[in-house]
Amino acid sequence: MTDPGLQPERTHLAWRRTALTFTVVAILAARHAADHPAALVLIAVAWLAFCGTAYTRGRTTTRPLPHLTPVVTVCSVLALAVAAVLVR
User: Fold this and answer.
1) Which of 22, 39, 43, 75 is geometrically suited to a Cys-Cys bond with 86, CB 3.0 to 4.6 A?
2) Buried-exposed string 52-84: b where 16+ CB fall within 10 A, e elsewhere
């Protein structure tokens, strides 16, 4: 059963905006961590995981993924935090 209204489109656009923002943050973090390979790997993994989740979540508005989305989001933020500690 699909929602004929605009809610799926709004959800998809919101996830795209969030992924774009996360991409900008990841690029800035990678520029700062250019001399630290471990930090760059963490940033890349966090970016791939978050963008993959955003893409999946934006496309599957009829089948919510209640457990996956918060876990990947928290893990992505923690990976960026660990990368920041490694660079420091």
Assistant:
1) 39
2) ebbeebbeebeeeeeeebeebbeebeebbeebe
